[in-house]
Amino acid sequence: MVFAKISQVAHYAPEQVVSNDDLAKIMETSDEWIRTRTGILRRHISKDETTSDLATEVAQKLLDQSKLSAEDLDFIIVATITPDSLMPSTAARVQANIGASGAFAFDVTAACSGFIFALSAADKYISSGMYQRGIVIGSETLSKVIDWSDRSTAVLFGDGAGGVLLEASDQPAILAESLNTDGSRGHSLESCYLGLSSPYSGQEMDRKYLTMDGRAVFDFAIRDVTKSIQKLIGDASLEADKIDYFLLHQANDRMLDKMAKKLGVSREKIPANMMEYGNTSAASIPILLSECVENHCIKLDGSQKILLTGFGGGLTWGTLLVTI
Ligand code: ACO
């Protein structure tokens, strides 16, 4: 049997950092409001790097760390809701930038669950035996779809990218998974609506900016997402305390407190970095994973069980229980 193993992790964020106090200079908000409601202290905002530029930095780091050549890659998947363009895909741009001429490449659009959905698909490519190695990246420049005149969303998001190199292995990495979508609740989170526009149709307005019913999304995360994590742990015949870390989507620290309580898990097992990055949608989990490896709490030596959970627009939510 062949399985897929996460052999390298990496992340990258634009240099420019915007603090809560910086935001308070351009909108009616305060560090106190943002910090106490969300846990966010600052975020990275791109000056001139695009989503594919951020993803290319991550892809290059993964290659440098692994000493592989770009030509060794079979595929590149980028999860993003802020692509440079719909065509070519962000992944195709990365493929060209790093010179991975043998890799097929495409984007996944599943908002904050995008990295989880993409990692699950990549795992199946490798465990089918057809492909040996590939890169999965979450990359976002959410700053370009934020309505900077809407303080209720503008303070929440940031730019960044993170990713993993997956390689064929004889040890199973994904032990259990649960992927979910409820399109009927899609209106809770919307962005970049492309209206019809042709001589044969009515003219519908494009609506670029991200809108969110924050309370509905908060409740969805606490209720539905937590329930699906509990079910996955139960189905895998595991106890929550046998899991070393829970890497949950980084939207709001208060939300993580509530999820920890419902799951009966100590907050020490649920790391957070939204203080530094804000919500980076598809990039949030791989950035966190990469930072955890950097600070040695996660080791990539096959000895730990880690739960990765994304949730957001779609609505989508997904959990992978991995040995790492
Ligand atoms: N600064 C100051 N005041 C503000 C701000 C701000 N930035 N934003 C809103 N307020 C005000 C509101 O106007 C409101 O004032 P009012 O009571 O006078 O009307 C008050 O603060 C409370 O607003 P609420 O929206 O009720 O605040 P809430 O406590 O619900 O927190 C928040 C809002 C932080 C957005 C929370 O609902 C949340 O985190 N939701 C989840 C978001 C999330 O998880 N997103 C993940 C998916 S993202 C994706 O998929 C791309």
List the main descriptive attributes of the protein structure presented here.
alpha/beta, Peroxisomal Thiolase, Chain A, domain 1, 2 domains, five-stranded mixed sheet, 32% helix, binds acetyl coenzyme *A
Task: Explain the overall architecture.
Residues 106-183 form the Beta-ketoacyl-[acyl-carrier-protein] synthase III N-terminal domain. Its main location: cytoplasm. InterPro entries: ACP_syn_III_C, ACP_syn_III_N, FabH, Thiolase-like. This protein has 324 residues and is α/β, with parallel strands linked by helices. The chain has two domains: 3-170, Thiolase/Chalcone synthase (Peroxisomal Thiolase, Chain A, domain 1, 3-Layer(aba) Sandwich), CATH 3.40.47; 175-323, Thiolase/Chalcone synthase (Peroxisomal Thiolase, Chain A, domain 1, 3-Layer(aba) Sandwich), CATH 3.40.47. Helix content is 32%, strand content 24%. It contains ten helices and 13 strands. The protein has helices at 20-24, 31-38, 51-66, 90-98, 114-127, 151-154, 214-235, 253-263, 274-277, 284-294; strands at residues 3-12, 17-19, 42-44, 75-79, 104-108, 133-141, 159-169, 174-181, 189-190, 211-212, 245-248, 305-312, 316-323. A five-stranded mixed beta sheet has the order 1-7-6-4-5, with helices on both faces. A four-stranded mixed beta sheet has the order 8-13-12-11, with helices on both faces. Strands 2-3 form a two-stranded antiparallel sheet. Helix 4 (90-98) links the parallel strand 4 and strand 5 (104-108). Helix 3 crosses helix 4 and helix 7 packs parallel to helix 8 (253-263). The chain starts with a strand and ends with a strand. The model has no long low-confidence stretch (mean pLDDT 96). Bound molecules: acetyl coenzyme *A (ACO). Acetyl coenzyme *A (ACO) is lined by residues 29, 33-34, 37-38, 111-112, 151-152, 155-156, 189, 214-215, 217-218, 221, 251-252, 279, 281, 312-313.
